[in-house]
Structure to design on (199 residues):
């Protein structure tokens, strides 16, 4: 079953920190003359691509461009912030349907590129309004902190070593982890000397 499903994958774009690409995607031949593009990645990256959202009952609603009190984008942002502060690594996912004829046209138009490169170009090369990418939702994953991390940080601080944390997670997730392991205190979040660098 998995092998048969894998054969239907027409292209794959991996996440790449070098290219600052905060998502991965694959194009799957779903039959019925459609290619479905499945995308997952950082919520902010996925939100910037989406033009609509799948509602609770499966209905499709337009995704507002900016978060305003009570609108769908604001509700989604609040949900992501809540999960990130738990701390959870938050991953959003979306999809878009494309007629096979359009996919074939894209391959024809970019003959010098591989299918993977064509898919990457579709998702990063300009306006995506014609593609109608639909936000499906988000989920949170928790990476448990190893048991000796907190004591190691404590001993390092006593020895005069300044411990710094590098993370690819959202800022709120990184702050929650730093609080959990004792790298910072709650009051540090409001101090000017508490510095977080965003890449």
């Amino acid at each position: 079953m998995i092998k048969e499903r894998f054969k239907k994958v027409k292209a794959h774009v991996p996440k790449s920190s070098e290219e600052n690409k905060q998502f991965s995607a694959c194009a799957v031949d779903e039959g019925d003359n459609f290619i479905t593009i499945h995308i997952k990645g950082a919520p902010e990256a996925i939100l910037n691509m989406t033009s609509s959202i799948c509602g609770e009952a499966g209905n499709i609603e337009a995704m507002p461009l900016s978060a305003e009190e009570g609108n769908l984008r604001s509700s989604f942002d609040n949900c992501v912030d809540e999960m990130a502060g738990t701390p959870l690594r938050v991953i959003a996912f979306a999809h878009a349907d494309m007629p096979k004829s359009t996919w074939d046209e894209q391959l024809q138009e970019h003959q010098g590129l591989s299918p993977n490169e064509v898919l990457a170009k579709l998702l990063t090369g300009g306006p995506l309004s014609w593609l109608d990418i639909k936000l499906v939702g988000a989920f949170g994953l928790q990476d448990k902190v190893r048991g000796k991390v907190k004591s190691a940080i404590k001993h390092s601080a006593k020895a005069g070593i300044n411990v710094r944390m590098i993370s690819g997670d959202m800022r709120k997730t990184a702050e929650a982890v730093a609080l959990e392991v004792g790298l910072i205190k709650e009051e540090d979040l409001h101090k000017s000397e508490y510095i977080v660098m965003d890449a």
